[in-house]
Amino acid sequence: MDIVFSERHARHAGRGELYDGKLVPCFEKPERAGLVLERVRDSGIGEIIPPVAHGLEPLQRVHSQDYLDFLRTVWQEWVAIRGDIDALPLNWPVRGFSQRVPDSIDGRLGFYSMDAATPITGGTWEAATAAADSTLTALARVQSGERGAFALVRPPRHHAARDVFGGYCYLNNAAIAAQRFVDQVGERVAILDVDYHHGNGTQSIFYDREDVLFQSLHGDPRQEFPYFLGFADERGSDAGSGFNRNFPLPWGTQAETWFEALDEALREIEAYRPGLVVVSLGVDTFKDDPISHFLLDSDDFSRLGERIARLGLPVLFVLEGGYAVEEIGINVVNVLGAYDATR
Amino acid sequence: MDIVFSERHARHAGRGELYDGKLVPCFEKPERAGLVLERVRDSGIGEIIPPVAHGLEPLQRVHSQDYLDFLRTVWQEWVAIRGDIDALPLNWPVRGFSQRVPDSIDGRLGFYSMDAATPITGGTWEAATAAADSTLTALARVQSGERGAFALVRPPRHHAARDVFGGYCYLNNAAIAAQRFVDQVGERVAILDVDYHHGNGTQSIFYDREDVLFQSLHGDPRQEFPYFLGFADERGSDAGSGFNRNFPLPWGTQAETWFEALDEALREIEAYRPGLVVVSLGVDTFKDDPISHFLLDSDDFSRLGERIARLGLPVLFVLEGGYAVEEIGINVVNVLGAYDATR
């Protein structure tokens, strides 16, 4: 399968995030993509191709214009006032506050975000749009008849909502690709989110929609980031009722339990008969991931690739989380290789 | 006038807050109270007396029980997991998220807070409840017939809402005292908040109430923390309609403009005929305050004390912000001294 990759991902390199009460080096770092690239290249799974520019229009279909303007311009404003340090928000409009957009840069950083772990840097916009272009380029390969394609991108995206960044995510490219497919092909899309963390952004973007099915396996939000979304009773609203499905799983979940949930998600996807499956491919379910608590082993990622392949549907894989840097390349290649080998 | 003070304020000494994208030493530090105490003692304004314990009941009238339980117990849980570093939240339930209380400690820290600038330490609960007791003790002096009393307390409180901490504040003692007066005396209370920052917590606690009038002069939220509350069109809701008044003022506001707004607030308080005035006394409107942008001089604080005195009403002063540590004692004493001297 084709792998779409841009070196511009490295333009986003956050220096610090708030974690366990300390400002620590970012877990989501450029080395992640480099290690996946190396393994993908060694594996011979497919050709590595550069992204084609797609412009802002596909992004505008998922994100609000004011949010995109903010992301595009915030760094220049920040650096003029604060100098060359990462931009981090300070406070947030939680319950009881108004939802007006403030004028000040700190106010807007808080308004458009959900956490103190997602710095905006000088290269964030460039890297995030390169990731969007890579994802849309990979989608185009699938639309042109390929059985699968892989967007090897960072920063990740599934926490980003219509006008909220956070969880290391700025643009929700899985959602951008799903929307693009709906717009261009007119068929339904299923999104399978196997990242360890709940894809709150993706869920919220399609929550009232019946043309995009969202299925997510993740750490139970009662225990795990993002804490405030990802519960089992979130099944969609309005026309989207029944088209959102969460499988929150406890810390220490082993492969057996995880695959039971996966099989149920895959059955629902099969019954939905989508024209495309987008897989939000986080590999932070791995047992040695430094910030996660599931116990999948590297072999389990091969099983995941096989099971997805058995759907017999075109698949767009997009890289999400995975922070055990040494192993993320192996685990990604295991998924993709098994997908390719299973017919 | 009597000054109520407890050394237990020093039990709360946060080590770091997120500010301008960096984790910096806390601006709200124990030295603040020490410097005010020294000046108050030197001034001979009145006797310095210790607080009397008032228990949890007055706190429960303003804050939710689950929030009080959280504040009381969170440190023990945190230190058992993370060790002896300040507890800071990581992410927040902004728009689009559910408002369920998570099980995990990080989730609950986010649920009950609004910013990354308000650490919880080993002594936070003790210091915050000592501040509540001091405020209630000062209130009791006024209720027993004194013309005025001063609660020399920290941490401050006017940003704390019913179940949200933030802005260096944990318990909203100005609100606790106002509620106590309403409960015990059955007369109305006016709260005059002259701190540089909007008292979002106090506003929200009494927003639908006609028996507590809230008047606040502060930095315009379009420019200034807390960014998401404190606009001029927030006039109260339901029975409280018309009983909330904000005077948002721009950066660089000089004394003349500030006193025009103050006079209007005082006219509204006079017309309201309250049985008590609670003054949320921040002195961070001072021209050299390190995190604020108004231009009041030390003499202006004497004028403030005089104007409040001319109301001819019993006044409970409670210390809020003020971070130009050298001068906060002088400015507080100028307010109190002028109040005492004006009849």
Structural description of this entry:
2 copies of one chain form a homodimer. The first copy, chain A, is α/β, with parallel strands linked by helices and 343 residues long. Chain A has a single domain (2-63, 123-341), classed as 3-Layer(aba) Sandwich (Arginase, Chain A), CATH 3.40.800. Helices cover 38% and strands 13% of the residues of chain A. Chain A contains 10 helices and 10 strands. The first copy, chain A, has helices at residues 31-43, 57-60, 65-82, 105-111, 124-143, 173-185, 200-206, 255-272, 298-309, 325-341; strands spanning 2-4, 17-19, 22-24, 48-49, 148-151, 189-193, 212-219, 244-249, 276-281, 315-319. In chain A, the strands form 2 sheets. Chain A has an 8-stranded parallel β-sheet, with helices on both faces. A two-stranded antiparallel sheet of chain A has the order 2-3. In chain A, helix 1 (31-43) packs parallel to helix 10 and helix 5 runs parallel beside helix 6. The longest helix of chain A is centred in the middle third of the chain and has 20 residues, at 124-143. The radius of gyration of chain A is 18 Å and the shape is globular. The first copy, chain A, starts with a strand and ends with a helix. The mean pLDDT of chain A is 96. At the A-B interface, helix 4 of A face helix 4 of B.
Share of residues in strands of chain A: 5-15%
Order of helices and strands of chain A: EEEHEHHHHEHEHEEHEHEH
Counting structural domains of chain A, the number is: 1
Q: What is the helix tally of chain A?
A: 10
The name of the CATH architecture of chain A is 3-Layer(aba) Sandwich
Summarize the amount of helix of chain A as a percent range.
25-40%
**Major β-sheet profile of chain A:** 8 strands, parallel
CATH first level of chain A: which class?
A: Alpha Beta
The structure class of chain A reads: alpha/beta
How many beta-strand runs of chain A?
10
CATH fold category name of chain A = Arginase, Chain A
Average pLDDT of chain A works out at 96
Low-confidence stretches of chain A: none
Find the biggest chain interface. A-B, 55 and 55 residues
Quaternary structure state of the chains depicted? homodimer
Gross morphology of chain A? globular
